[in-house]
Automatic annotation (TrEMBL):
It comes from Bauldia litoralis. The lineage of its organism: Bacteria, Pseudomonadati, Pseudomonadota, Alphaproteobacteria, Hyphomicrobiales. This is Delta-aminolevulinic acid dehydratase. One of its GO terms (molecular function) is zinc ion binding. Belongs to the ALAD family. Pathway: Porphyrin-containing compound metabolism; protoporphyrin-IX biosynthesis; coproporphyrinogen-III from 5-aminolevulinate: step 1/4.
């Protein structure tokens, strides 16, 4: 084997489990997990989401139980998404400003029962609008600046209910700065902002739109505000602006198909960088596993490990409780 240079054998370190563990370059832990959960009106309700096997919508009392489970597993934070009653949806998404809306009620109930878990709330109007868009629709345009006024009010409403991290997912220009100023003026100087900085107009959000009930109502698509999947440099400019405007953490979404973006943003800014393994990614793994085509648990762990390898500090994933159970056992 003259071609093996100076006795180099890469396989030597891989022979045994102890050695593989010793040379492993990245580690996935429960500290890396953020669990997105869906909320629904009512009491004692756990409602399966058809396109996301293993994921349910919870009434507020059940969300509290989920938070208790998450805390027991050591999951640092939850992200909350409401299925708003269709009667409460209107043109301007006014339910987003209701201090007793589902997200606010869940924040208060979870904070009372599980004070030490982090609560991340999504800022965007899509769960509340009759047209399913993240912003205000005038004619056929999503108007930027008027939407921002609505989003800052939504952020304050969530902060008042006890949200720890405000996470704008709407992709309007200038919203991070406006939200930061509004939070500071309202006395919420400790409230963090996790910006969905590079959020792409993706087909992988399909099951989520079922979960929050916007797939039937969404008019058109979101390509005038979410990013073109073909672009990379633009993601860096988006992240740069969000950081300059005051983001404490940045996020890339979807996850696995966009690991190059995660890597470049982490490298460029050295900011806490998160990735969102979205509903369609979850559904693909669960569907293949459910058919016996892949080993679901191994695919889950491999996908989460890949985010760490790409430089993510943490991952929003519907697998969070399953992964936490696996990582702590
Ligand atoms: C919208 C929002 C979306 C997701 C999180 N926030 C969907 C969209 O932009 O239509 C998707 C999450 C997922 O697919 O898991 N504000």
């Amino acid at each position: 084997m003259a071609e093996i240079l100076a006795g180099r054998r890469m396989r030597r370190n891989r022979r045994t489990d102890w050695s593989r563990r010793l040379v492993r370059e990245t580690a996935l832990s429960v500290d890396d997990l953020i669990w997105p959960i869906f909320l629904v009106e009512g009491q004692g309700i756990t409602q399966p989401v058809a396109a996301m096997p293993g994921v349910d919508r919870y009434s507020v009392d059940r969300a509290v139980a989920a938070a208790e489970r998450a805390a027991a597993l050591g999951i640092p934070a939850l992200a909350l998404f409401p299925y708003t009653n269709p009667d409460l949806r209107d043109e301007s998404g006014s339910e987003a400003l209701n201090p007793d809306n589902l997200v606010c009620a869940a924040c208060r109930a979870i904070k009372a029962a599980v004070p030490d878990i982090g609560l991340i709330t999504d800022v965007a109007l899509d769960p509340y609008t009759s047209h399913g868009h993240d912003g205000l629709l005038v004619g056929d345009e999503i108007v930027n600046d008027a939407t921002i006024a609505q989003l800052t009010a939504q952020s304050l409403n969530q902060a008042e209910a006890g949200a720890d991290v405000i996470a704008p997912s709407d992709m309007m220009d200038g919203r991070v700065g406006a939200i930061r100023r509004a939070l500071d003026a309202g006395g919420f100087t400790n409230t963090q902002i996790m910006a969905y900085s590079a959020k792409y107009a993706s087909a992988f959000y399909g099951p989520f739109r079922d979960a929050i009930g916007t797939s039937a109502t969404l008019k058109g698509d979101k390509r005038t505000y979410q990013m073109d999947p073909a672009n990379t440099d633009e993601a860096l400019r988006e992240a740069e602006l969000d950081i300059a405007e005051g983001a404490d953490m940045v996020m890339v979404k979807p996850g696995l198909p966009y690991l190059d973006i995660v890597w470049r943003i982490r490298e460029a800014f050295q900011m806490p960088t998160f990735a969102y393994q979205v509903s369609g990614e979850y559904a693909m793994i669960q569907a293949a596993a459910g058919n016996g085509w892949i080993d679901g648990e191994r695919a889950m762990l491999e996908s989460l490990q890949a985010f760490k390898r790409a430089g993510a500090n943490g991952i929003l994933t519907y697998f969070a409780p399953l992964a936490a159970e696996r990582l702590t056992r």
